[in-house]
Amino acid sequence: MSSVATIVLDASNYALILLLIALGLAIIFGLMNVINLAHGEFLMLGAYTVLSIQMAGGPFWLGLIAAPLAVGLFGLVIEEVVIRRVYHRVLDTILATWGLSLLLKQSIVLVFGPGSHSIEDPISASVMIFGAPYPAYRLFIMAISLLVVTATFLFFFKTRIGLAARGVIANRNMAACLGINTRNLDRMTFSLGAALAGLAGAVIAPLISLDPHLGLGYLVPAFLAILVGGLGSIMAPVVGAAGVGVTENLAATFLSPVYAQLIVFITAVLVIRLAPGGLLGKKRRQT
Amino acid sequence: MDKPVLELDGISAGYGTGLVLQDLSLTVDRGEVLGIMGRNGVGKSTLLKTLMGLLKVRSGRLTFSGHDLTNAPSYRVAAAGVGYVPQGREVFPDFTIRQNLIMGNLKARNDDIDAAMDLFPVLRERARATGGSLSGGQQQQLAIARALIGRPALLVLDEPSEGIQPSIVREIGTTLKQVSAEKGMTIMLVEQNMDMITQCCDRVVFLEGGRIATSVPAAQLLESPALLNKYMAF
Amino acid sequence: MIRTALSHMKTESLVAGILLVVLLLLPLGASSWLLSDLSIYFSYALFAASLAFVWGHCGLLCLGQAVFFGLGAYAMSLVTLGMVPGVEGMVSTWLGFAAAIAVPALAAQLLGRFLFHAQGLQGAFFGIVTLAVAFIVERLFINWDFVGGLNGLMNVPPIVLGLNGDGYELWEAVPLYYAALFVLVLGFSVLAALMRSRWGLALKAVASHEMRTKSLGYDTAHYKTTAFSIGAAIAGLAGALFVVQFGFVSPSLIGFGLSAEVLIWVALGGRGMLVAACAGAILVRVLESNLSSVFGDTWLLLLGGLFIVSVMFLPRGLVGEAIHGLDRWRAKRRKGGSTPRGKAVERLSPSEYTAR
Amino acid sequence: MTSITRRKFLGSAAAVAGGIAASSSLSLPALASGGTIKVGAVLPFSGGLELYGNQARLGLDLAVSEINGGGGILGEKIEVLYEDNKTDPKTSVERATSLIRRDEVLALTGPITSNARDAMAPTIKRMKTPLLYATNYEGGACSREVFCFNTVPNQELEKLVPALKKEAGDSFYMFGADYVWPQKMFETAKSLVESEGGTVAGVEFTPWGVKEFAPVIRRIKESGAKVLLFALPGADGITFIKQAEDLGLLEDVTVGFLGFAETYLGAFGEGKAQNMWVAVPFAESLQTPGAQKFVQKIRAQAGSDVPVSHYVMTHYNALMAVKDALEKAGAVDKDALMDSMQGLTISTPTGPAEIGAVDHHVTMNMYLAKTEGAGLSVVEDLGSIVPEAGCS
Asked: Would an 8 Å CB–CB cutoff place B74 in contact with chain A?
């Protein structure tokens, strides 16, 4: 058996990646009641932004900064063109964003081709932890994820815009009646959620093979994470991502990847069914 | 006298395909405290919700302080200077009192918050408590303070006395009266509580069948029980 | 309302009738490959109808409808391949059809009870859970060696008219075409009749205002479960119709991919009308089979774009909107005549349409 | 290309018109078939395995232009009709059906995945149409109609396993995708490892779409295995190798990469994924005149930077076999084609290859190679290996 430290590191690493991805999804769902099935493709766009910069000869770190900006901007456009028109129709947001995901995948195929691409490791060193080497880049990812999650929390819990946003989650109509510009907040939220996905995509790009279908493999566990965690709360994805990420990783460590996936899915379905609000969630207002 | 602060001209609105308000017209003068009365289901709350942009105006025109707010989104109505205290208060249960007040005006400074708390001292005493932990009456006071912190030109309240002990109802009435007098604020008060109406209002309109049936000075109300019987009794 | 609903129904039936006549006459002129393409598409059309029933009429957005299609296909295959333990000698097509209807219905019954009873799942949650269920079931079938794992089962026999796998094999294009059309019409009629029945009306009520209907004393969970099972049974029948023509079944028929595809067909055709959903399925398939090579890589782009636009602006779907337009035109004409028959069906904005 | 497009468009317009108006004469396909031998290619051009579809197409296109440039087959031109199966079995069957019925093709080629091929099997059997399957697979596809032009497990493993044992050590770990090809590969590998006196430290499968392989990588590391037999195709495989590299697994084990193609090389990046061993029927870097000429011809046609993997060659071989077989038979029809392909020896860029008279699988030359620098370098010419097709 691997040392406990390595197992813990691996599991936290995966859980933190999931958290980074689930966070944007949860913000968009929580604030806007939009189920964004194109989130995986936003992730992919982030990764491909890094790829474009690498192809143009730019450094990875530039890509890391450019990806959230580019995808955030893209999210702003999508909000204006598509999402805005399907608010209040939760089921239709599923369909519209799913159509969007088809569209984005195919666009990437047309631009970058269907094949796999690779991002070079920005940090190839290893760090010794409890006597075992651990890739420094994985530690960097964990740091980034913690940093972003903390920043997001500070934003939501320590700023007045964050307060307003939480007000919108709690009671959208009342917040609007108090003069909170929900339209701008929607734009900002969707863009922020997209930017977070873009950042996540850029961060994980060196770990994986880039291909137009990479989104689904992350979207599904991230989705389960926010559903398990619960919806009406910013804290929920943390619990959900930790739950799903650690469960999947441990099951893969001690059983096999096949069982890991099944266990996560079945547990998630049970949790969603038995506690529809999620582990941390509250009953949402129906507005 | 100025132009009316609020003008509703031939408004029709409702839920789904049914119309609750039908061709309703109403003007409210600046500084006026207007009571709105009527039986359950005649459209009092619908009127306020339509004003706030929560319901779609099917026909007609809504003008406030010279701005056309027909079908404007709620936040624009609020930004134009309408403060709203909804039925059921709708304070944010997880937010502290202070946070609830800030929701009323994101740009509120400390002295604005202090001023709001001055109106209802109980809010200061429990400033760190969450909205959900307050009693109904305290929540009502919080909701009013929250609406006032945005310095609205028009304050609309939907049954503020509902489910609240009489002493607090009176306190609220006094405060409203005081605010209206001191700041020249216009108030629209949907209410069933006669004490509250007579305590605060200058004028009362009765709704029936989705439109204004009659309009009388509040003082006249006490002298004409026939009116109440006609529009209020079941 | 009732009158407008009636006149609405009528246009829909009219269109369905015309389509049926065209399809019945088609073998007189069409080539055999078109017929065999169409007879395959009939199974998709029936599949689409089952989703339109569950989603459009009952308000249950099932993102895993292919589970039932696949179960039906597997049930049919296991029976006709003589793989059912204990009764290997029973290879009757008819028994296969029965199993293909019963197995998915039973599965939906169990799933429905689990999902709907007490404080059941609603709307988006239901959708996401059915999506997860599709993933799980696909996974299970991939790992189930008895049914052939990822590659599935091959050489499933066609429809055999005899009682136990003997007699005339339905394999020639024209007889197969009529058989498939017959099954489609049969399944379609069952759904249509159910939707028009009082029970269907109650379902509609459950779909639009579950709480209100519940408070009127209806056991809404029971209604939804039953509707879900009926949808599953029809999807299973479609799966059986598919497998007797294709001769194979594999986990790709049971999972997320096909579930998503049928969703596109129904959304593009029209979720609110059975005939629109069926036409949508056939239309998308015909176009795809003939145009995807012309458009190449941009075909998926086109389909995705069309899908988004239709979700945003045409919640009735392309075919549904056309039928609806025809309906309004007819209503107007009638109104123009001597006997006014109530006002034309009002035009709804997308949000209002779904709000209902 | 343009002519295909136009023909398709006419066909589709007719189809739509036919559907709507039930017009009586749809003789377009028949008209178009005069004087042309048509072969339908059901290949993935979307849905995940586009790379393989595109590789196959390179080989088929080259074969078409060579055949037609040399006067065609028995005086008739050959044409390949490409259909996208979206990497999906159901679509494969639909495409195959319409190619056979509508376009009246003489034979089919493709698909890539086993499940798509199995799905098509009943259809081609009923319609008595030969299928030229040119992808490496698990074996067992045996029927009068099916001809396989790429490898089955023993061809890839027979020499690879001993070579790896000699090179790296005698403890093997096997990791692959959770479907039939890796399962069969590992079954064969297991018996080879055991007969060579090696040990199997573990066999493990993963579902598609997994992005995080750290747990598996740890376990392989812990097992102390010296060789990793690896059968996870596509993007997931690349992700695994990347992570294995980062987590230091590649320092401990030597990888035997099953189902390798040069198309992977670009995705690993410079200097990465070194020393992975493969056994292939063709390699781009193979320094024989036939192989180099083949690579040149492909690149002249498709651009100087395309990878040319064995998939290009096997699909090319498949179509060239059609020419040889028809010419030998002296007639253009399906039965003549199938009869005459049995036992036929064709010449390929890597030398002669023999199509089995009974099992319809190809005996051909194989090469041992390993990844080195930015490419695949051939270590040893393994000579021709007879397929164990797994026909019962």
From this structure: yes
Mean pLDDT to the nearest integer, D80-88: 88
Superfamily grouping for domain D6-151+288-360: Response regulator (3.40.50.2300)
- Whether residue A272 and residue C121 make contact (CB cut-off 8 A), yes or no, is yes
Q: Phi and psi at residue B219, in whole multiples of 5°?
A: -60, -30
Q: What is the DSSP string of D318-341?
A: HHHHHHHHHHHHTS-SHHHHHHHH
Superfamily (CATH H level) for D154-280+368-385:
Response regulator (3.40.50.2300)
pLDDT at C182 over 70: yes
Q: In terms of DSSP H, where are the helices of B87-164?
A: 97-104, 110-119, 121-125, 136-148
C1 touches B: beta carbon within 8 Å: no
Helix then strand then coil, % of chain C, to nearest 5: 75, 0, 25
Burial C93-113 (b: 16+ CB within 10 A, else e): bebbbebbbebbbebbbebbe
Condensed to tens digits (0 to 9), the pLDDT of residues D214-248 reads 889 988 998 999 999 999 988 888 889 989 988 88
Q: Return the higher-pLDDT residue of C91 and D312.
A: D312
Looking at beta carbons, which residues of chain A come within 8 Å of D234?
116, 211
State yes or no: pLDDT of A286 exceeds 70.
no
Q: In this complex, which of C61, C139, C354 lies closest to A261 when CB atoms are compared?
A: C139
Whether the predicted pLDDT of C118 surpasses 80: no
Q: Which chain A residue is nearest to residue C124, measuring alpha carbons?
A: A91
Q: Which residues of D touch C152 (CB under 8 A)?
A: 89, 115, 118-119
Taking the Cβ of residue D330 and every Cβ of chain A, the question of whether any pair is shorter than 8 Å is answered with no
For the ranges A39-48, B41-50, B217-226, the lowest mean pLDDT is seen at B217-226
- Indicate the domain borders of chain D: 6-151+288-360, 154-280+368-385
From the candidate CATH numbers 3.40.50.920, 3.30.413.10, 3.20.20.70, 3.40.50.300, the one assigned to the domain spanning B6-232: 3.40.50.300
Cβ–Cβ contact B231 with A under 8 A: no
pLDDT for the residue A279: 66
pLDDT value of position D388: 92
Residues of chain D neighbouring A133 (CB-CB closer than 8 A): 248
Counting as contact any 3 or more CB pairs under 8 A, the partners of D are: A, C
**Chain B contact for C347, CB < 8 A?**
no
In this predicted structure, the answer to whether residue A201 has a pLDDT above a threshold of 80 is yes
Q: Inspect the interface and report whether the beta carbons of A115 and D247 lie closer than 8 Å.
A: no
Asked if A99 lies within 8 A of C305 by C-beta distance, the reply is: yes
Of D114, D119, D179, the CB nearest to C142: D179
Per cent of chain D over pLDDT 70 is 91
C38 in a structural domain: yes
Domain ranges of chain A: 2-114+123-212
Asked if D272's CB is within 8 angstroms of A118's CB, the reply is yes
Tell me: the pLDDT tens digits for A129-181?
A: 777 788 899 999 999 999 999 999 899 889 999 999 889 888 889 999 999 99
Q: Are B84 and A178 within 8 A, CB to CB? A: yes
Q: Is the pLDDT of residue D25 over 80?
A: no
Would you call C123 and A90 a contact, using CB atoms and an 8 Å cutoff? yes
3-state SS of D275-312 is: CEEEEECCCCCCCCHHHHHHHHHHHHHHCCCCCCCHHH
Inter-chain touch B16–C355, beta carbons under 8 Å: yes
pTM over 0.90: no
Distance of alpha carbon D297 from alpha carbon C64, whole angstroms: 48
pLDDT for the residue A128 = 80
**Given an 8 Å threshold on Cβ–Cβ distance, is C346 in contact with B17?**
yes
Domain positions in chain B are 6-232
Buried b (16+ CB within 10 A) or exposed e, A165-201: bbbbbbbbbbbbbbbbbbeebbbbbbbbbbbbbbbbb
Residue pair D43/D82 in contact (Cβ under 8 Å)? The answer is yes
Q: Which of D178, D239, D263 sits opposite A115 (nearest CB)?
A: D263
